[in-house]
């Protein structure tokens, strides 16, 4: 009888329920043309996941576990297969990703929509994604390249550049950015002498660079990838003396370019999504020395993961069909502003029925179509490193 009473007492003292484990997919190009970027992007997303999980305030104490998958960036079949595994085998409740625009579009149409899965991309920037059929499932934390093309044109014209040659990687990202830039630059009175596609992973880019040099231009705009064809174009240009001043859109502003060229491209400029907001400073504090908080798309990755989890808390559900309608609500005003490092606080407010305005690392503000309004950080290569010189 005594043993029975002790057993009963132990049962009464036991927790009423065991906290659940929620899985979040981190689908990025961990191999392929942006692998140097993806290193810190993955760390950014996982930093937000750890912050939420460690707070103990998510969904009545549920823990959150990141599940990585490799989109390769450029192989649509590999990206869709990886996304399918995340959903069907791993049972994720949401996806941070994908990274490159073409792979993201493929995952959205072939995997996310058929499975009703929410995805927030931290780096897919093609203008075509703004009009994609998404059933309210797709969002992105960086601004569209429709905006980047205008910003890039403004930077070059402000520097007094009148003519440029353009080379772009032959995919959705490259084409969309090149078209956006050319339209803006010519409207501002500049001349695009040539706009030519290049393929990635060629052993020799002398023919492409020869055509670019023949067309001429004060600056060569390289809308490519720092770990693939963009690097090949720059190397061939330097080695042949075709160009010595370049302009780098976001796909080239990475550790890959620094490692490959360093001071060889000093004086060249570029831009990437970024802001000088209080949120960016807070993100740097939260990151500490774990990785470079200014590395491309790392803040956007933190924000993407945070928004998925905040929307789940606001909806009181990890079902994508339920929480998808809360993403705009937690991202935009009105509500108490939430900075990096304050995700536990945000969970408390939402659990109590309050409203939040997630500012995050990148001053997130979503448009109705799920695009981010966004801003850009202007950089110049000085002494072999990208230095910030302004924001737009």
Structural write-up:
- The protein has 392 residues and is α/β, with parallel strands linked by helices.
- It has two domains: 21-144 and 277-358, Response regulator (Rossmann fold), CATH 3.40.50.2300; 145-273 and 375-391, Response regulator (Rossmann fold), CATH 3.40.50.2300.
- The protein has 14 helices and 14 strands.
- It has helices spanning 2-13, 35-55, 76-88, 101-115, 145-158, 172-187, 206-215, 229-240, 255-261, 278-287, 298-315, 320-323, 327-331, 343-351, and strands spanning 21-28, 63-70, 95-97, 119-121, 138-140, 163-169, 191-198, 219-223, 246-248, 269-273, 336-338, 356-358, 376-382, 385-391.
- The strands form three sheets. The chain has a seven-stranded mixed sheet with strand order 7-6-8-9-10-13-14, sandwiched between helices.
- Helix 14 links the parallel strand 11 (336-338) and strand 12.
- Helix 3 (76-88) runs parallel beside helix 4 (101-115), helix 5 packs across helix 6 (172-187) and helix 11 packs parallel to helix 14.
- The chain is globular and about 65 Å long.
- Residues 1-18 have low confidence and may be disordered.
Keywords:
single chain; 392 residues; alpha/beta; Rossmann fold; seven-stranded mixed β-sheet; five-stranded parallel β-sheet; 14 helices; 42% helix; 19% strand
How are the secondary structure elements laid out?
Layout: H1 2-13, E1 21-28, H2 35-55, E2 63-70, H3 76-88, E3 95-97, H4 101-115, E4 119-121, E5 138-140, H5 145-158, E6 163-169, H6 172-187, E7 191-198, H7 206-215, E8 219-223, H8 229-240, E9 246-248, H9 255-261, E10 269-273, H10 278-287, H11 298-315, H12 320-323, H13 327-331, E11 336-338, H14 343-351, E12 356-358, E13 376-382, E14 385-391
Parallel strand pairs: 1-2, 1-3, 3-4, 4-5, 6-7, 6-8, 8-9, 9-10, 11-12
Antiparallel strand pairs: 10-13, 13-14
Helix pairs in contact: 2-11, 3-4, 5-6, 7-8, 11-14
């Amino acid at each position: 009888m005594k043993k029975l009473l002790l057993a009963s007492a132990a049962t009464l003292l036991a927790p009423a329920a065991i906290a659940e484990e929620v899985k979040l997919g981190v689908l990025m190009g961990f191999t392929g043309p942006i692998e140097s970027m993806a290193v810190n992007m993955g760390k950014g997303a996982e930093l937000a996941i750890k912050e939420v999980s460690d707070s103990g305030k998510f969904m009545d104490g549920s823990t959150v576990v990141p599940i990585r998958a490799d989109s390769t960036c450029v192989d649509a079949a590999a990206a869709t297969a990886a996304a399918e595994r995340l959903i069907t085998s791993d049972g994720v409740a949401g996806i941070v990703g994908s990274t490159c625009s073409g792979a993201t579009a493929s995952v959205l149409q072939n995997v996310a929509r058929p499975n009703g899965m929410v995805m927030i991309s931290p780096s897919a920037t093609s203008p075509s994604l703004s009009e994609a059929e998404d059933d309210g499932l797709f969002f992105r934390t960086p601004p569209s390249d429709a905006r980047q093309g205008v910003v890039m044109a403004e930077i070059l014209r402000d520097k007094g550049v009148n003519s440029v040659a353009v080379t772009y990687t032959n995919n959705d990202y490259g084409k969309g950015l090149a078209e956006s830039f050319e339209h803006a630059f010519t409207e501002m009175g500049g001349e695009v002498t040539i706009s030519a596609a290049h393929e990635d992973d060629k052993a020799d880019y002398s023919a492409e660079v020869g055509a670019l040099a023949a067309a001429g231009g004060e600056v060569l705009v390289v809308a490519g990838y720092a770990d693939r064809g963009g690097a090949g174009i720059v190397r061939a240009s330097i080695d042949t003396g075709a160009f010595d001043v370049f302009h780098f859109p976001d796909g080239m502003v990475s550790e890959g370019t620094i490692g490959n060229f360093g001071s060889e491209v000093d004086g060249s400029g570029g831009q990437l999504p970024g802001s000088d907001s209080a949120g960016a400073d807070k993100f740097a504090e939260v990151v500490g020395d774990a990785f470079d908080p200014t590395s491309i798309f790392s803040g956007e990755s933190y924000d993407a993961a945070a928004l998925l989890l905040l929307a789940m808390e606001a909806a009181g559900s990890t079902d994508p069909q339920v929480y998808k309608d809360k993403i705009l609500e937690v991202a935009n005003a009105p509500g108490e502003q939430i900075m990096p490092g304050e995700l536990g606080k945000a969970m408390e407010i939402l659990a109590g029925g309050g409203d939040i305005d997630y500012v995050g690392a990148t001053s997130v503000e979503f448009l109705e179509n799920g695009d981010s309004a966004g801003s850009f950080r202007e950089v110049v290569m000085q002494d072999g490193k990208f230095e910030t010189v302004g924001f737009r």
